[in-house]
Design brief:
Layout lengths: L1 H11 L1 H9 L7 H24 L4 H24 L5 H25 L7 H18 L3 H40 L1
Helix pairs in contact: 1-3, 1-4, 2-3, 3-6, 4-5, 4-6, 5-7, 6-7
C-alpha cells in the first residue's frame, strides 16, 4: 500500500539526512532541516492516506510507530553526535523510546495487542520536531525552549503510554491465564 511505501521511503532517507547534516553540522544546515520537514510531513501524509482511503494494514500499524521512534533516535542522536545537544538532553528521550519499543514488543508478542496512538503523543512529537528543526538552523534561542517543552511533553506522553499499557497488560493477564 502507498502509506507503507511512504513510511519505508521515510526510513530510507535517514542516511541522506545524516550525510547532508554532516556537511555543515554543528552550524546551520537548512538542507538537513528541509529533509526533516519533508520526513515529518510525509509521516502526516501516510497516516492521513491510510485513514482516508482505508489503506490501513497490520504492517503499517507496526511499521509507522517503529519508524517514528527510529527517526527520533536518529535525529536526536545526530544532534548529540555533532555536539549540538548535550547528552542530558538526549538520553531521557532515548530511554523513553527504548521503553516504548520494549513495551510495545511485549504487548504485541505476548497478547497480540498493538499500541494505540494518543493525542498527547502527536502534540509532543510535533513540538519536539519543531525544536529539532530550530537547532538544525542554529536558532538556539528559540530551539531550547521549544525543545524543552517538546521533550517534557514527549516524556509525559511516554509515561502515559507505559501506564496505560501496564493497565491493559494487568487486565489481559488473568484472561490469558484462565485460557491456559
Amino acid at each position: 500500500m502507498i502509506p507503507n511505501a511512504i513510511t519505508i521511503a521515510r526510513l530510507s532517507c535517514l542516511p541522506l539526512f545524516l550525510w547532508v547534516y554532516s556537511l555543515r553540522a554543528p552550524a546551520a544546515s537548512w538542507p538537513a532541516a528541509i529533509i526533516v520537514l519533508v520526513l515529518a510531513l510525509s509521516d502526516v501524509l501516510d497516516g492521513w492516506l491510510a485513514r482516508r482511503h482505508g489503506w490501513q494494514t497490520e504492517l503499517g500499524r507496526v511499521l509507522d510507530p517503529v519508524t517514528d521512534r527510529i527517526l527520533f533516535l536518529f535525529l536526536t542522536g545526530s544532534l548529540l553526535l555533532f555536539g549540538v545537544l548535550p547528552w542530558w538532553a538526549v538520553v531521557p528521550l532515548i530511554v523513553r523510546d527504548a521503553l516504548m519499543l520494549a513495551g510495545s514488543a511485549l504487548m504485541l508478542f505476548q497478547f497480540n495487542e498493538k499500541p494505540r496512538i494518543m493525542r498527547g503523543g502527536r502534540l509532543a512529537n510535533f513540538t519536539l520536531v519543531c525544536g529539532i528543526e530550530f537547532f538544525m538552523i542554529d536558532a538556539r534561542r528559540i530551539a531550547w525552549p521549544v525543545y524543552c517543552v517538546g521533550a517534557t511533553l514527549y516524556l509525559v506522553a511516554g509515561f502515559r503510554y507505559i501506564w496505560r499499557e501496564v493497565l491493559r497488560w494487568r487486565q489481559a493477564r488473568p484472561s490469558s491465564a484462565a485460557a491456559s
